[in-house]
């Protein structure tokens, strides 16, 4: 797995790749604008070029943008849905200009109007935006939910139902957040439970659909449907829960981004978390030997 983290852009987009490398990242995720805004300031050609040049100069193996928090492609409200689709299209355009591999998007919520309708609206929105920009290179990754409220994408089956309705499957995939998995009731803290999780993933979605991870421990208990991230090894998942993911050859060329809490000491918490994850690398029991050979990372190109 390519280990990395979410890096801030307060010092400028072009500074994020060097910051990531400085703290030990092989991959970085960023926001392209404030996640609490519907739209951001236009990206200049110079800013986009400087970011892409910095990614190449630092030798990063994967990059992603995390979509802002306001868009809800599952909304049953016409005005909100239209605004969400515009925001998604604009964010995808920004991702294309920056040349990242992936745009990671919260699937959305049905707001009480029913799961089936919500899933259909998400897929419809994806198809409309992809149709409007047929030559896009960036892969959109739907992030699984912990299951709070009416959020969608809490199970592999729900994610699979969305993907199954997308016409251009080359432009869509999934990002799995470990904290969200745990909150949704998926246990993976032992070799046995991890094996069951992967079997379920294969049967309901397909492991080949997973193109990124968010590696986060959890402050909440298994099946709580609560999304509260914790530093690696300090939460209810514990370090062993991450050993299976980082050593599984299925994910050898897939990025895993930290979104764990930071203190006031810059990115030192990330440095510690990356160190914990790398300390888990090495031979494991039967899990590693039965995993499939590495697949080529599906870049946006």
Key structural traits:
globular, 10 helices, single chain, 301 residues, 8-stranded parallel beta barrel, alpha/beta, two-stranded antiparallel ribbon, TIM Barrel
Short description:
With 301 residues, the protein is of the alpha/beta class. The chain contains ten helices and ten strands.
How many beta-strand elements?
A: 10
The radius of gyration computed from the alpha-carbon positions, rounded to a whole number of angstroms, is 18 Å
Number of helices: 10
What series of H and E elements makes up the topology?
Answer: EHEHEHEHEHEHHEEEHEHH
The structure class reads alpha/beta
Shape: globular
Largest sheet: 8 strands, parallel, barrel
Q: Average the pLDDT over all residues and give the rounded result.
A: 93
Question: Could you list the spans in which at least 5 consecutive residues all have pLDDT below 50?
Answer: 286-301
**Integer count of domains:** 1
CATH architect. name: Alpha-Beta Barrel
And the CATH topology? TIM Barrel
Structure description:
The protein has 301 residues and is of the alpha/beta class. The chain has a single domain (2-290), classed as Alpha-Beta Barrel (TIM Barrel). It has helices spanning 16-22, 45-58, 78-98, 115-132, 156-164, 178-183, 191-204, 240-247, 268-279, 286-290, and strands at 2-6, 27-30, 62-66, 102-106, 139-143, 172-177, 210-215, 217-218, 229-230, 255-258. The protein has an eight-stranded parallel barrel. It has a two-stranded antiparallel sheet with strand order 8-9. Strand 3, helix 3 (78-98) and strand 4 form a beta-alpha-beta unit. Helix 1 (16-22) packs parallel to helix 2 (45-58) and helix 4 (115-132) packs across helix 5. The longest helix is centred in the first third of the chain and has 21 residues, at 78-98. Residues 286-301 have low confidence and may be disordered.
């Amino acid at each position: 797995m390519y280990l990395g983290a979410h890096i801030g852009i307060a010092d400028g987009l072009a500074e994020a790749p060097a910051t990531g490398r400085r703290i030990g990242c092989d991959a970085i995720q960023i926001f392209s604008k404030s996640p609490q805004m519907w739209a951001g300031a236009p990206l200049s050609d110079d800013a986009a070029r400087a970011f892409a040049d910095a990614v190449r100069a630092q030798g990063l193996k994967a990059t992603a943008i995390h979509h802002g928090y306001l868009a809800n492609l599952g909304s049953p409200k016409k005005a909100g849905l239209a605004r969400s689709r515009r925001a998604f299209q604009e964010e995808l355009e920004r991702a294309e200009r920056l040349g990242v591999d992936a745009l990671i998007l919260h699937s959305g919520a049905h707001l009480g109007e029913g799961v089936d309708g919500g899933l259909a609206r998400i897929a419809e929105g994806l198809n409309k935006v992809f149709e409007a920009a047929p030559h896009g290179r960036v892969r959109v990754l739907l992030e699984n939910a912990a299951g709070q409220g009416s959020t969608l994408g809490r199970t592999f089956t729900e994610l699979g139902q969305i993907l199954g309705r997308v016409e251009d499957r080359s432009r869509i995939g999934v990002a799995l957040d470990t904290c969200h998995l745990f909150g949704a009731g998926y246990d993976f803290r032992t070799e046995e439970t991890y094996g069951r999780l992967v079997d379920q993933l294969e049967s309901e979605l397909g492991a080949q659909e997973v193109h990124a991870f968010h590696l986060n421990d959890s402050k909440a208990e298994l099946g709580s449907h609560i999304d509260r991230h914790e530093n690696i090894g300090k939460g209810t998942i514990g370090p062993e829960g991450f050993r299976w993911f980082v050593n599984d050859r299925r994910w050898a060329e897939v990025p895993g981004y930290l979104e764990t809490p930071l203190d006031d000491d810059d990115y030192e918490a990330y440095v510690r978390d990356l160190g914990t994850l790398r300390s888990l690398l090495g031979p494991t029991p039967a899990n590693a030997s039965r995993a499939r050979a590495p697949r080529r990372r599906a870049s946006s190109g």
